[in-house]
Amino acid sequence: MEHLEMMSNPEVMSKQKESKWSNYGLRIVVNTASHPFDYAKILIQIGYEPIAPRPAKTLLGKPALKLPNIFEYVKHIKSVDGFSGLYTGLAPKLCGNLLSAIAAQKCTDYFKMPVSENLVFEEEETEENRKQMWLASMKSDLISHAAAMVVSHPFHVITIRMMAQFVGREAKYMGLFGSIKEIYQQNGVLGFFTGLVPRLLGDVLIVLLAGGLTYTINRYLVEEKELKVYTSATMNFIASSIMYPFHVVSSCMAVNNSGLEIGSPPYMPHYNNWLGCWADLGRHQQLKRGSSIFVRYYTGPYISVSGKLLPVTKDQTLYPTLKS
Length: 324
What we know:
CATH superfamily: Mitochondrial carrier domain
CATH topology: Mitochondrial carrier fold
Number of strands: 5
Organism: Dendroctonus ponderosae
Largest sheet: 3 strands, antiparallel
Strand order of the largest sheet: 1-2-3
Distance between the termini: 68 Å
Pfam family, one: Mito_carr
Protein name: Mitochondrial carrier homolog 2
Shape: globular
Oligomer: single chain
Number of domains: 1
InterPro entries: MCP_dom_sf, MCP_transmembrane
Subcellular location: Mitochondrion outer membrane
């Protein structure tokens, strides 16, 4: 009844619309500000290391190869392409994020259910009612996340391919419409959805894992209402860390066999599907690359530095030896 009264109140509806658009505006500002770091992270995920690693030691004193952190990576991109070069791929990224937000909001409005992170149970609620409300909110979350990802993924592919040109200095994916034409010519319609399955699967598993852990912890372990507010954010962070390899595989598949240097041997084999990509990265201990942005160590059998594949010995040194 209260929900119907709110829907019939023009003033409330107007405020809700203003809030939605202010949220969209905030997303654009945040995405623009963080874009250089996202750019560097994508290049790390697809396996490009333009700066030779330095011999170092871990906290436990073991020899290791220390890779440049995210700030050093951003500095390198700027030194090559200038300040404006840090925002390569920003336009399609913002288009995709805007479409994603609108699609998610439309789905949430359609189901008229709160998302799981905002779900608050009253003390008098029965256990059965709690479960039903949680299941309904999880269903809403899953559908809204899936819809948002599907409609925005073509722009995600365009963004990654525009960024990936940094490696081979190509100019194949230039501008939104030029990139659409190039992807269609290179891979057909399915090219716009390359890497969607691992990305979608990873996101669905994050929602399920984070939602399940949040419900269980808030129901059986945490009694204080003030602490329950932080449970969802914490569980989302943990779930995202566990499912991170899905994002690495998705990024690699987005450039694989794309006509770009980084998407072909010797940088990357041509994979038949994302499972083959997962298996190959797993063999070389590369499923977590880019997960740490401040302190990065290389642990694989070889590394690609400035277009050359160099083997790594057991004592964590490069052969032939590189000068930093």
